[in-house]
Amino acid sequence: MLLHVEKGWLTISDPxxxxxACASFYRRIHERESxxxxxMDLKQxxxxxxxxxxxxxxxxxxxxxxxxxxRLEGDTAVGQGVTRYFISTCMEKLKSGxxxxxxxxxxxxxxxxxxxxxxxxxxxxxxxxxxxLVAGRMIGHSFIHEGPCLSGLSPAVVHVLLxxxxxxxxxxxxxxxxxxxxxxxxLLEGDNALSDAERARVQELAYAWDLPCLTESNKKWLFEKLxxxxxxxxxxxxxxxxxxxxxxxPVWTVLTKRPETAALIFxxxxxxxICPEIFLQRISWPKEEEDEDxxxxxxxxSRIKGYLQEFIKNGTAVELMNLAKFWTGWExxxxxxxxxxxxxxYPTASTCYETLKIPGHYRDYRSFRCDLLACIETCHTGFGLx
Length: 386
Hints:
The protein is of the alpha/beta class. It has 17 helices and 8 strands. α1 (2-11) packs antiparallel against α2, α4 packs antiparallel against α6 (131-144) and α6 runs parallel beside α11.
């Protein structure tokens, strides 16, 4: 029966549904095994909290499809919402950096560069510390639990990560995260003549990477070679280690057997944005008709609904992402979201039930927006209520 189910996801035409079916299959075959336990103490420093995440994913010989139990020490939250929070936090840390002092830096970034052109850090210390192995496991673990993807990676890095040759990768200057190196390589772009000082800068870089002298005939060739080495050649070990981490999880099976899923597992930065229209379509609103057993009038329900609709329609990408994470535990919109109007001071959320609870006392949009913004900012620090 399990073999039939496994083959099933391979034949599903919709890649999104195929990914979900694959993740469900692997969770099911390991559901009776002892759970993995991941805990974090919110009373500790950000560095200690991040270290707890890193140490969890540094464990060797782990079957990552086993059930996952997550605990937030110092917070009353339990259930699926906590699991979502942990996984979402891991994926966010891969992009924003860990608050761990590696190599005399308070924030350690595994990936560098502008959105849509992220490349692995060239730091050898991170490779020696197996941090890209950790990254691969985090990405695969998020896939198992149908969590957020790592968006914004350079297409050239994804190409090589999945077995493509560096020579056939589409590399751009924006993929070069080191601005000093980028400026030197950029001097070779186009047909403009270089000054002696500019030629010296380019030559210094070429010698450092064992490439030949710059001549009039090899200018374009040298430009391409320097760019490929700057983006891919310097981080070959990082990419290999990241691939090793992915191979420890079912995500690698999907990537190799269903190559079209690569664009979904490593989406471009802009595809990670939440569309306001889709957000609003998925909300189940409180019924507005009068009910003698209801605490709130139809007018109040309509007013609060209007405030939330206005916030979502006009919210920035970051605000909508934070709202989704506050509401559900991560930045992925479920098929259905619920809204309740309650008696309390500030908005709260029941992430396990994907329910946003909004006080009915608001009489103007300005105060509503101010409180909601303050509350959704707490999504980055746990489930503490304001």
